[in-house]
Records
---
Amino acid sequence: MNKKLLQFSVLILLFFFPTISLAQGDLMIMPKRLVFDGSQRSQEINLANTGSDTAVYAISFVNYKMTESGNFEQVDSPEEGQRFAEGNLRYFPRRVTLAPNEAQTIRVQVTRTGNLEQGEYRSHMYFRAVEEQTALGQEEAQEAEGISINIKTVFGISIPIIIREGASTTQINLSDISLNTEGENPKLSLVINRSGNMSVYGNIKVDHVSPEGVTTEVGMVKGVSVYTPNTKRNFSFELRSAGEVDLSTGKLRVSYSEEIGKALATKEIPLN
């Protein structure tokens, strides 16, 4: 094991009740997603405990569907057009104990891919904190009619594991772009439309182009996905870098690009 600090934004915080939200915690994971596209049969996930206490994590698979608003809901059976990847994945170890500032590698392998149909398969690897003598997370005692109740919160993080078989037929376009200038920061809303056999994951960038042709970046959001079988995702965010431009003139250029920079869709809207 190597002792190192792995920095990035973790994806999902799961409580003991079925609520899903974004969070950061003592368990750091890199990378935040794995994609097997035929060129690799084995990849590694690096875990690091950035907390001050020893932590134990059990590792398993869960399956989610994405809503049009980008939230995740756990499902037991795939929806139409959705395929789970867990039946074609194996990993080791299935449980880890990490001392403070300690790191460990999880190896993930693809198996039994000979009969896979063309398209995409997705499951999420779930790292659940295992309670020892002291609960991991918060513990709160409540009393109701003389009965003492201990509520213990168990934390976990999940990351998507994706298998892709065959060539991608996916296409993206942007629609329903609107700008709301009320409030402290202007807010842009749009719909990302997806068609084809695979999901997309990328960055949204917004540039303001003045009447004189001067281009200024006014907004950027990284890591925006649209997972199969969804055909669209509604998305809104604030343009926090727009303070020095005049949003009543010129135009906005909105682009959705892969992480490596390839533009998947671009659209311009006039502001006057």
Note: The first strand starts at residue 13 and ends at 14.
---
Amino acid sequence: MRAAPPHTPTPHTPGTAIHQLASRLRRLPPSCGPVRLIGVDGHAGSGKSTFAGRLAEALGEAPVLHLDDIASHDELFAWTGRLLTQVIEPLHRGETANYTPYDWRVRRFGPPRPLPPSPVVLVEGVGAGRRALRPYLAHLLWMEVPREEAWARGRSRDGEAQREFWDGWVQAELRHFAEDPSRPYADALVRQLNEGYEVLPGPMGTPSPDDGVTHREEPPAMW
């Protein structure tokens, strides 16, 4: 069961929000073996990778797993089994995970890459807060950017060469979040400002007065 975060917004002085968030995350109890696994989810193009990189730096260079390395052209979202087998199970045992990152240019998986069971590990990408992963997360962050705005950013970033891919991606992402939404389970919402970020309580971080505890899914008995 994950601890509920404070119910007040994190100040958004440049740099302050991320460092205060990092301090909170370090104090959370481990959620996956010895690891505090932190999910960074949001629509494609919402700035997850950039934010995760800055948060990792604030955490003392915490490892970051990019879900683009787990997904593939043939499995845009059907990668749960690979993530559990290659990453979650070893980390849960306190071992270094070795996952095979996908190369989107040559369309094949590469040699294994290590992911150590550090005190905090970030998992960023569309679907980081999916149902199968939530039981192992210490905290779920959602990038609060409207999907149309996020997709427009992504299309602009990737250019005309990726137009066909984006057309297919948008439909796949819509189906994914319709079947397995992440935002309702976010502990905090992250908004990018002109300078820095603002971190606000998410749906799971603002329990009603009648809730004595914040209810969480428990990890299945896999080991």
Note: Confidence is low (pLDDT under 50) at residues 1-14, 207-223.
